[in-house]
Design brief:
262 residues, 14 strands, D-Maltodextrin-Binding Protein, domain 2, Fructose-1,6-Bisphosphatase, Chain A, domain 1, globular
Length: 262
């Protein structure tokens, strides 16, 4: 796919940050790690990745706004556009030596996500999409799965940790969904969960308690691959409220009905 100039800048930034992260991942036991909060770690690698991405994106488009996990947000002189960045989604996986983490970059224009990149450096898989142009992984066009039966489908979610208040609600959802599916996976990287729905590896995904940088890019990639994505609560703001449910079109209504318990 021949992408726009903005998309090419995003892909370049993701690859450059990915190379830095891979180097640190090989020495994960030596990383200087501090705790931001329960279950939410920040590392030298995380901060270095964000620095690289910011230099690349803001160097190319200095008038755009900026929203990212590890630094303060800023409004650009062009108020219609902003970068939304997670420099290391799946930090806990990274710090435990699990090769399942990603760099996520989205571009928002007038309140709409118009381009998204999710890069998995450990597997060299670059997922990307532009609004109206389809979704891709490396050189392959992405399409959500064609499964129609819940009993044939695999779903992904996140599980609350360290005493988060939504644990009872999540357990109730699992009790409803597990008996009628082929399984539920918890892989700890929301951006990759969403791209896996786009690639047909998962048939659906839901999670709450996320941040906009966790899901902005993946949201566009799912939709451009033919999937449906909505807020968990029908009138909520997506991606701003950090709650999402997505699946292929054939399963979405059944899946959403079970999760929402409607």
């Amino acid at each position: 796919m021949q992408g726009s100039a903005n998309l090419n800048v995003m892909i370049k930034a993701a690859r450059k940050a990915g190379r830095s992260l891979v180097k640190d991942f090989r020495e994960v036991e030596n990383l200087q790690v501090s705790r931001k909060g329960a279950g939410d770690f920040v590392s030298r690698a995380d901060l270095a990745s964000e620095t690289i991405i910011k230099e690349e994106l803001m160097g190319a488009r200095p008038t755009y706004g900026w929203t990212a996990e590890e630094s303060e947000a800023s409004e650009g002189t062009d108020p219609t556009r902003r970068w939304i960045v997670d420099p290391l989604d799946g930090t806990t996986n990274f710090l435990h030596g699990l090769p399942h983490w990603a760099v996520s970059i989205a571009l928002e224009h007038k309140g709409q996500i118009v381009a998204g990149v999710v890069f998995d450096p450990a597997k060299d898989e670059m997922f990307f999409a532009e609004k109206g142009q389809g979704a891709w992984m490396n050189e392959s066009r992405l399409r959500v799965s064609g499964r129609r039966k819940m009993t044939d489908a695999i779903f992904a979610t996140g599980l609350p940790f360290s005493g988060r208040a939504d644990l009872p609600e999540t357990l109730q959802e699992l009790a409803r969904i597990l008996p009628v599916t082929s399984g539920v996976r918890r892989w700890g990287t929301a951006s990759l969960d969403m791209t896996y729905v786009a690639a047909g590896r998962f048939d659906g995904f839901w999670e709450r308690g996320l941040n906009i940088w966790d899901i902005a890019a993946g949201l566009l990639i799912v939709r451009e691959a033919g999937g449906l994505a909505e807020p968990l609560r029908p009138k909520a703001d997506l991606p701003g409220d950090g709650e999402v449910i997505c699946a292929n079109e054939l399963l979405f209504d059944q899946f959403a009905k079970i999760i929402r318990n409607t």
